[in-house]
Every structure is written in C-alpha cells, then in structure tokens.
Amino acid sequence: MASSICISRQPIVPPAATPFHPKSAPLFRSFYFRNASSGAVGICCSLRRPEYIPNHIPDPKYVRIFDTTLRDGEQSPGATMTTKEKLDIARQLARLGVDIIEAGFPASSDADFAAVTLIAREVGNADADHVPVICGLSRCNKTDIEKAWEAVKYAKKPRIHTFIATSEIHMKYKLKMTPEQVIDKARSMVAYARSLGCDDVEFSPEDAGRETGGMENNVVNDVNLIRKTCETPTYRVTGRSEREFLYRILEEVIKAGATTLNIPDTVGYTLPNEFGQLIADIKANTRGIDNVIISTHCQNDLGLSTANTLAGAHAGARQLEVTINGIGERAGNASLEEVVMALKCRGEQLLDGLYTGINTQHIIMASKMVEEYSGLRVQPHKAIVGANAFAHESGIHQDGMLKNKNTYEIIAPEDIGLLRSNESGIVLGKLSGRHALKAKMLELGYDIDGKELDDLFVRFKAVAGNKKIITDDDLIALVSDEVFQPQVVWKLEDVQVTCGTLGLSTATVKLSGADGKKHIACSVGTGPVDAAYKAVDLIVKIPVTLVEYSMNAVTEGIDAIASTRVLIRGEDSITSTQAPTGETVKRTFSGTGAAMDIVISSVRAYVSALNKMLGFQRRLEAEDPKEILISKFRPHEDDDTFLKSFSRCQHLYLFRPTPLTKLDTRSQTLEQ
Q1: Mean pLDDT throughout 494-519?
Q2: Which of 174, 262, 601, 613 has its CA 20 to 30 A from that of 139?
Q3: Does the keyword GTP-binding belong to this entry (predicted)?
Q4: Which CA distances in Å does 637 have to 241, 255, 366, 633?
Q5: Are 42 and 3 in contact (CB under 8 A)?
Q6: How many CA atoms does the CB half-sphere of 279 hold within 13 Å?
Q7: Packing angle between helix 598-621 and helix 528-540, nearest 10 degrees?
Q8: Complete DSSP assignment for 243-287
C-alpha cells in the first residue's frame, strides 16, 4: 500500500476546469489545512483506496460510500428517471468515486430491471482504476433475488442487497410471521443468493433502528400488545427490533454467507446517541460480526440522518448509505455531500481519522445532474450544494470574508468543484463569445462542451439580445432547459396565443415528431397555458393528468426568465413496486422549461414531461428492452466525454405574432 506525505504552498484541490481522467484519478486519503493569513499552505497525508474485499476492509479507517440515489432516491414523488438518465448519473457516481452503486430494484418493473442490467454492463465494467460495485435490491424471496442476480451479474463486482422487516409491529401486521419464521426466511434467502454465484450479499433488517419508548400512543395503545407479537418470551422489549432477536438474526445471516449487515433507521426516529449505541451494541453482542461490514441507512424524518450516519461511523460502521442531495422517500436520506464533507473536515480530529475515497471535486456536478434529472430542486440553504452555501449577505460577514475567506468558510467552493463566484471576473453580455460562456458555466459548476455548448450558446445569444444583464440564475435556467432534457419524441417548433379579458383564450401549437413530420393543433382554454396544453394533447393523443404546475421568475425585473416545472401522470401510467412496502404505485414524470415568455416556458416544460413519459413507455414496449438499451448506449471510448452524451430537445425560436385566421371555437389539428 503506497503512502506519502507532501507539503504544498498551492491549494491541493485543482480548479474545477482541470480535466479529470478516471485512470489517473487520485484515490487517496487527504487532509489539508489553509494558512490563516495566506490561505495557501496545504498538508496532505495519502493512502491508496484499500483493495475491495466484500466482507473485509484492509484499512480499518476507510469508510465505504454506498449510494442509493438510483433506488431509494428515485422513490421520491415525481423523481422518475429514464434509463438514459440513470446511466448518466451512475457514470457520474463512478467518477465521484463511490464504492457501491445501488442501481435499482430489478423486480419492481421491467424498466428498473433493464436499467440495472445496463448499468452493470456499462459502469460495472468500465476500463478504469476504480470500478464501483453494482448492487440490486430484493425482498427476501427467490423471485426477487433471482431478478436482482440476473441484472447485476454482468458487473465485475456484483452485489445482491436483500431485506426483511424485523420489528415486532412489522412482523405481526405486515408480514404476519413469527420471529422464528423471519429468521428462517432471512437465513435461507441469504444462502440462496450465495448459491446463485454471488459472493457479495448485503442483508438489511428493516426497521431495526426505531426505539419503542414514546411510540406507544402513536402506534399501539399498549406496549403489551407489542410483547405479544413475539412468541419467544426470552426476547426483551428494548426497541422496534428487539435487541436479542436482532443479534440472533444477524448471526444467522452471517453464517449463511452475508458479507455486509445494513442497519436501517427506516423511519428516521432515532437520535444520534441512540443510533451510535445500537451500532456499538451490535458489534459487541453479535457473534461473527468481525467477518462482515456494518452499514448504516438513515432516513431524515427528524432531520438527523447525517448526524445519525456519522454517529454510526464513529461507533464502527464502515459502510454509509447515502443519496445525492439527500433525496428519498418522505423527508429523504442522509446526504452524500454532507456526510463526505463532514468526514473530510472533521474525520481526522474527531472521528478517529475516518476517510473515504470520494473525489469531492465532482460533488457539484453530481448534485446538479440529480437535481435536473429528478426534477427535485435543491433548497437554496441546503448544506454544501445549496445556492446560498457560499453566499454572505451580512455586513459583518462580508467584512470578514474580504479580509480573510477562512473567517466564515470551513469549506472552499473549490473543494466541491465550484469556482468562487465571479472568480474569473467575467460579466456576460450580448457580445460575449463561446469561450467566455464556457468559463462562466465552469464557474457555476457545469462542465459542458461540444454540441451542448454550441446549443446553449444559441439560447444565450437569443436571451442576451433582449436583456441588458445576464445573471447566473438566467444561465442556470438555460442550461437546465437545454442540456438536461429527456430524449426527444416531440419537439416544440412554434406556439401562438390570443387572450384577453373577453372570451376564451386560443392557442396554436406546432410540434415536430421523431420522424421530422410537423403537426399543428389549435385549441381554446380558460387561459393561454390551458389552451396551449390542450393543443399539445391533441397532437400527442396521450391522455395525462397534470399533477403539479409551478413557475418562478429566476431573476428580478420585467425581463426575467420564467422557469416552469410540471408533474404529469398518464391515465394508463407505468407502475412499479415500492420497496420496502411492496405497494404498486403509478409513476409520475416531471418536466422543466425556461423562456422569457411564460407561455413558451410552460409549453416547454409540458413537452419535456411528455417526452420523458413517452420515452419510458417505448422502452417498456420494446421486445427486449435491455438489448435495445445496451446496443444504444455503448461505453464511450473516452471516459472524459461521457457527460457530453446528454440527449435534449433542440428548441427553435419561431414565435412570431402572426394573427390566426379561419379559427372557430372548435379544436382542430393539421398535419404538414
């Protein structure tokens, strides 16, 4: 194992614009300190990422990062992502340096199975020094486990993650099983997963973390009712998963071949001291625990997921399950960026030297990619990646920052791949060129080039011609609308509306299909947006329900760009099985649009959502979805160009105030 100590008078982390090559990526542990006056002295103590062994980590200080954005994160309402979007995110996660990617729940739907299979083949077989483990989730039954194995087996390092509920209330009311039956099921299913040829099996006792104290009135009126759930009287009631029972089931799955034991706080109920003690108790009382990795999975229902995760790591957990931006069911999950940066900032001093293999330079791009593809906006005050994370408005704070940036910053923007605002001194206007636009986008955390940059430049010039000042928020709205769009099924060509205080609003919309054929539809509605949406529906001919519509002006002033987000659900919408409840739910699809005209912005967002839904349906209708996907998305010869593979709509500015003629109150469609 190579080690080194270096002292540098330059910042250790390179600027975000520095090209990143996976084969030469630094897989090192590093601690750095800035001189209070010069801000330039760094000290770096480095160790290479330990060799991956499923049930053992050679360096006891190393913490594996298990990202479940593509599985648990996608369970957020409206966060449905296409297979192409999942592949892009998986590649970015590999670039980020995560150890394990939970790519999905293969048994939940054909689309999930195809996506996990594709990620296993592509990302799980990349030609790079670091190739992440590709994991598939399954319930404790043979059908789920077989599906998971069929999907992940193509990866160099495949893993099956299986789970079963272990709290008394879950066993009695959801599973309708006795504790002995649950133990037998867990043991036999872990053994079955190993028998398929999978050497890396993770087991989760669902709802292991929630304590009973204080829950009686919320869940049951009498704690004795909980006691009656367990038929074995020797188990004492100390929590939702009784400790002795929990130790026993963990011991049995270890004997059956489990390599990682994940301890979830399924409903985010524990406090950090409780969760840390739970991990410590498991380490002290579970036979065979030294032969496996202990993992944490903390939900954020009380806003404590990051704190609980760090408490678990301090108590001995060496795998931490997280998501980008903390997305997930209900209030979300522990946030990758928060957990990783906490370990980077405080791991040496307060957490016994714990460290990860994450290349933090790629955090901001991962955050923006997930934000755009999921449609879940990052709140401005979100730690690490929020828009205000490095903003200082207070006069006292600004004075301190001007004198020394370390006065009010514990993390530099450069640490996560974000150039400090206006560091380049570039102010964009209608005379700015492509190089200036690219430099500004790098400053904002977007590394785009090639055709993506060319298309964005066209949009930028169109807006710059109508606005005196182009703000950062304007550029972010444009890149969201231009780069992070689903594969094109329908493309907006033109829209014209007539509205006023008297009579119904009318709209004429022109769309072009994937075959290039132009379609025009006219409709009326209670407003210009309603009329335009009805015209789009006449062309697309797919009945949908508009679940959510929101619009924001991204800047101040009458010339502000309008950013629109919509959420739709088809009448015959695609369904999937939710983990861990097993409930069948209808998927919803989000879309975003941006323009200086609110109607155009609204139609762009609606067409974007329809494209995502239609693309999803077409994948499912293919005779062999995974083969089509695999043939379409071959690995890039140059790993450094994979971010350039985003598909998007090409928007044409054809919005002319031509009056409509011969239009009656009936909706009509035309084909050209």
Answers
A1: 92
A2: 613
A3: no
A4: 49, 43, 21, 12
A5: no
A6: 30
A7: 30
A8: HHHHHHHHHHHHHHT-SEEEEEETTS---HHHHHHHHHHHHHH-T
Q: Residue 352's closest CA among 397, 406, 313?
A: 313
C-alpha 312/C-alpha 302 separation (Å) is: 16
Q: How much is the pLDDT for 370?
A: 95
pLDDT at 654 over 60: no
The residue written with tokens 């190993």 in the block is 194
**What is the spatial distance between Cα 195 and Cα 257, in angstroms, rounded to a whole number?**
10
The helix/strand/coil state of 21 is coil
On whether the CB atoms of residues 589 and 600 are closer than 8 A, the answer is no
pLDDT, position 389? 80
Give the range among 36-45, 340-349, 515-524 with minimum mean pLDDT. 36-45
Longest dimension (CA), the chain: 84
Backbone conformation region of residue 166, classed left if phi is above 0, alpha if psi is from -120 to 50, else beta = alpha
Q: Which of 657, 637, 646 is nearest to 23 (CA)?
A: 637
Helix (H) or strand (E) holding 524: strand 518-525
Q: How far apart are CA 135 and CA 158, in angstroms?
A: 6
- Is residue 300 within 8 A of residue 329, CB to CB? The reply is no
Query: Can you list the positions of beta strands (E) in 345-489?
Result: none
Axis crossing angle, helix 305-315 with helix 336-350, rounded to the nearest 10: 40
Is the pLDDT reported for residue 341 higher than 50?
yes
| % the chain with pLDDT above 70 | 74
DSSP letter for 48, please. B
Q: What whole-number distance in Å separates Cα of residue 506 and Cα of residue 499?
A: 7
pTM of the model: 0.72
Quick one: pLDDT band at residue 656, thresholds 50, 70, 90?
very low
Higher pLDDT, 91 or 472: 91
CB 111 within 8 A of CB 626: no
DSSP per position, 460-511: HHHHHTT-S---HHHHHHHHHHHTS-PPPSEEEEEEEEE--SSS-EEEEEEE
Average pLDDT value for residue range 252-257: 98
Peptide bond into 19 cis (omega under 30): no
Smallest CA-to-CA distance from 64 within 35, 38, 95, 99 is with 99
Q: How many CB atoms neighbour CB 499 within 10 A?
A: 18
**pLDDT digits over 433-461, tens only?**
888 888 888 777 787 888 888 888 988 88
